[in-house]
Amino acid sequence: MDDLDLDHESVYDGLLGGDSSQWAFGTDFEDPLAGVDTMIPAGVDGAALAAYCLMLGDDALIYAHRLSEWTSNAPDLEDDIALANIALDLLGQARLLLARAAAADASVVPQMPEGSPVPPEDALAFFRDEHAFRNMGYVEALNGDFAVTIVRLLLFSSHRLALLQRLATSVDPVLSAIAAKGVKEVTYHRDYAGRWFVTLAGGTEESRRRLVAGLRTVWPTYAELSRSTQVETLASEQRFGVDPAVLTEEVDAVVDHVLAMAALERPDLPPSGTGPMGRIGRHTEEMGHLLAEMQVVARAHPLGKW
Amino acid sequence: MTTLAAGRTRAREIAGTVVDPEMPMLTLVDLGVLRDVTESEVGVSVTITPTYSGCPAMATMRDDLVHALSDAGYAEVEVKVSLSPAWSSDWITAEGRRKLRAHGLSAPGPSPTGPVQLSLAPVRRAIDCPRCGSADVRLTSEFGPTACKALYQCNDCLEPFEHVKEI
Ligand SMILES: [Zn+2]
Fold it and tell me: Which domain holds residue B26?
């Protein structure tokens, strides 16, 4: 008996009266870009566009998964909900970006067995091996305590907000629309992280000690956010993407402002690593564990419907 | 031609009865996510726009639209998702705002315009308690049970309530 038959004999069939669309998520998937013109604009290389979308999509996907680990573990209910919502926003951005990558260059999507109902963006998320992911090592790192998480989120969302604001003028109308929407969401993420950063710094002796330790943990990886690859340089030349190196000054200004509000200095620590390794598929040890957990259910049922 | 025009109005009316799964007091029209309803010889095409990128209610909205229009006799129902322009809480109609309040939710103020600002101070919104009308309310969380809501509590009647966020 194959997976498909198993799924058709779901115990819930009777409850649904055979009407699967009663489920909140449906049992068939919708194309998140349905009705969007995904034609590749003139002067844009489809393969480069796909590679670029994988980078931004994988950053959002892997970071969303990592942040979602706070669910039911955050210091209080409000922050549990906040971090889950931030993860959900990023997951939504990831879905659109991975769907855009698949539409721009179908060859990036892993081959699925015949009859598999898995849509391209899910195939990209759940059926790629580690070396095919293009996210920065920055988003793979373990959450650490709440202070480490807040520092990492502040730097990430400051960078991503600056990036999305520029990407909103991409010559690719799909990327431009995804970015314009993302700006509104990430604005809330940055404010959340910034407020907690200042609150922890000005709170108790213990909260300040933890924040300072968190800053020292995350700071060496900050430089990775603005390291560019050939793909991003090309994306910038063809005006569909942003070279992260040009964002440095703008992001630094935001980070320095928050540090000043928290009465803290930039840590005197050298950047870790030398290149954008994650962008070429070389990941840290934590990535394997993360993917194993994220992909295990989907991989066990390549023909499964949810 | 008359039939087509009449049909378009009818399809729009039917699509306009579909409600948001997470805030069922609001129709998709009240919420401002129903962007277009176009009828052709073969059926009807509806365009909706997501409130947030990761909004899980989109698939339900789509399914409910397909149901409502299929039940009304439309053979082919297509639901398109439009990403641009991005949804704004300003698109919630006056009727939608009235319904939110009637159901104990606080409606969003004007959505932010101009350059994106970092705001490190606690969020200040001039809102009042949907239950007793007191302006003495406090933010308990900027993130609520769904992506589109913040949590508040009234300092006078102590009622906790949800505020639909400006976006
Ligand atoms: Zn009250």
Answer: 2-81
